[in-house]
Amino acid sequence: MNAPTYKSPHHKLVAFFQRSRNQWRARAKEYQYEKRSLQDRIRDLEESRDHWRDRYFQERPAATPAYRGHEPPPAGAIARRSSTPTLNV
Q: Alpha-carbon distance 53 to 41, whole Å?
């Protein structure tokens, strides 16, 4: 393979490539910091949701109509609504 030939002086190329590399690293660090902070927030929200779900089902007796014959969803499970429309009769 032939090495690329540049017309610019080497000292300018070195400075340009170093600056480009440093900008890339700084941007990557910012993305990594944002990713970690979002992961922490998701973890905290999941813990809070599970805590309140557990508290709700512990305070309500099993005989109340809130259960409608079903057990509470497991902690950490995603609660999904039915896609079928319900008719109010």
A: 18
The identity of residue 16, as a single letter, is F
Amino acid 18 reads Q
Q: How many CA atoms lie within 13 A of 53 on its CB side?
A: 15
Report the number of secondary-structure helices (H) and strands (E) in the chain.
1, 0
Distances (CA, A) of 52 to 13, 46, 59, 62: 58, 10, 10, 17
Neighbouring residues of 54: CB distance < 8 A, sequence distance ≥ 6: 75
What 8-state DSSP symbol labels residue 63?
A: T
Q: So what's the pLDDT on residue 72?
A: 65
pLDDT digits (tens, 9 = 90+) for 34-79: 999 999 999 999 999 999 988 888 877 665 555 556 666 666 666 5
Q: Are 60 and 66 in contact (CB under 8 A)?
A: yes
